[in-house]
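INFO batch 0412 | record 1 of 1 | parsing
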Amino acid sequence: MTKPIKITYIRDNKEVITDAEPGSQVFSFMPEFTLNGNQLVAAKINNELSSLDSKLEFDCTVEPVYNNTKEGMSVYRRSLCLLLAAAAHKLNPKTRLLVGNSICYGYYYTFEGESISADALKKEMQNIINKDVRIKTDFISWNQAAELFEKLNMVETRKQLNHNCKSKIQINSIEDFSDLYFGPLVLSTGALRTFDLINYQDGLLLRFPKTKSPSLIPDFKDEQKLFSIFKRYKEWGKRVNVTSAASLNDLIANRKVNDFIDIAETYQQKNISEIASQIVKSKKVRVVLIAGPSSSGKTTSAKKLGLELQAMGYTPKIISLDCYYIGRDKTPLDEEGKPDYECLEALNIELLNQNLIDLFAGKEVIIPSYDFHTGTSSFEESNKMTLKDNEILIMEGIHGLNDKLTPKIPAELKFKIYLSALTQLNLDDHNRVSTSDNRLIRRIVRDANFRGKPAEGTIAMWPSVQKGEELHIFPFHSNADAILNTALDYELGVLRVYAAPLLRRVNPNMKEYSEAQRLLNFLENFATIPPTAVPPRSIIREFIGGSAFKY
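INFO prediction complete | emitting tokens
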């Protein structure tokens, strides 16, 4: 007789312990598939995100995951993407559907070959949803997978198998369409009723709900500036023939990646040079304001821009907006009662504007210093500054694009730059590289290298970081005079060297285990690149160390 296993089911911080037969599926222990209007989409088994049809083979803790959580919504979005690909295959098996960047709670797709209208695709997706088709997860042999993806005309997915030569390959299937497994999915297509599909630019936009409102599609707000930057970068990727993890891995395997590193770095520097030319052309700009989300490379970008301006005859002076923190005792508190250093009111706006007015008038000022250990601001004689006619100020910080930061400074004296790590690489035909994941991995590496913080610490604080970005950075990117893409398409191969060992140390008893495993699985798509290949002035050096710049 088979010995039963012990299942500890957790909901609302309460535990229910029961016995089960080994091989029982997760959903058989879920008492409800909806809770307060939210839908059950997955579960955590010993803190690892899993599909509801996963089999339980040993004593474990099981916790439900609903679609109003970050992890639940990621399952929902990933499942929607598979549904779209299945619908496209059913309508036209010969055309290639290719995923692009994210825009306003949606993913942009294009076609290679004959296109399919948004209306036709949406109708077919709805048909599959109405049939409530079970989404299957299976393992097949490597040879079967290679044959399958060749038959489905999934070129990049097939190429990636050359760098994933395992004896068995995990796939997901909806009816007769299959794709590589990249994470847990919903149990069946009937769970995917909230979505929209619209024509956009030269392709389609698959739109999905916000995490906090999983039953509503948010209003569409076009992001033309960001899209144009991504489109330009995507076209560059096609020209240099590196558009996916597979094509990058080919370069690494064939020992040609060093040339590509030089090309990628040169292209990024060219874009920085173009921005410097815009600044010089204006002839009136006295202060450059740089803003971007966490780990977008603000500090290094400011220094690289400074070098370009020097080459054009200017003398740049770089200041961090952190210098203008008002002090811990005066900083507003957040909803948890902790100092909210990310709100605009945490800065001494009045002093900042007066300093700028005085500097532009040729007066001498003392730039304040802020000590994060003591939480106090101070003024030191060594921080005296003047601004001559050929000198220009570069200020970087999260509020740089918010006009409320510098309300007393005339618009013609300011030049605002938004930074974003918009990688144009895809993992394969239908799976994209998330900008947020790229920045999180950068942050994990930097925090470990320079702040002594373990990976689980960075992962734990990331939702708070993203919340601050949603409030204080993203709403103002349209105010920018220029947008700089700080992603380097080879960087994940380098970052994997540092990040993978850190992520492997996150154990199953930690809440962050699920996210650590997801990131590890993501990084496995990239072959490693030795850090010695990274140039000394690269933005990547800001995270891995060894930079020629002083920080």
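INFO post-check: The chain has 14 helices and 24 strands.
INFO record closed
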